[in-house]
Amino acid sequence: MIKTFLILVLGAALLVAGVVTRPSERSAAAFLSDGRQPAAAAPQSMGETIRDAIVKSAGPLRDGVPDGYEFKDRVLWVDVYRDGRPAYTGVLSHWFKLDPPKADAGKSDSKLAAR
User: Fold this and answer.
1) Cα–Cα distance between 57 and 71 in angstroms, integer?
2) Is pLDDT of 38 > 80?
3) Is 25 exposed, middle or buried (CB count within 10 Å of its CB: 0-12, 13-18, 19+)?
4) What is the Rg, in whole angstroms, of the alpha carbon atoms belonging to the chain?
5) What's 22's DSSP letter?
6) How far apart are CA 36 and CA 30, in angstroms?
7) Are 112 and 39 in contact (CB under 8 A)?
8) CA-CA to 114 of 20 to 30 Å: which in 13, 31, 65, 99?
9) What is the pLDDT of residue 5?
């Protein structure tokens, strides 16, 4: 019983950490313009942190992501799309570049299907 309780508490803490630390649209704009991970901001109070997590991308920014990119906010992560395909994923205050699928990836699948 205690083990189950601890697993639930730790799982809930992990979910809260994911929601609170997902990158914002402002972070995406800085990353796309500079190509670097934005520096960490000064620590905030717990109330400000919770408010920011809830309304992280509630309204569009005037200086949002550059033209050609689209910002989509998920609950635990964010995606930045370019040409209708995900180009970057932001999770736990970090940005990850998503590599496009290789052009010959479909060819190798058809060779396997022919065997």
Assistant:
1) 9
2) no
3) buried
4) 19
5) S
6) 8
7) no
8) 99
9) 96
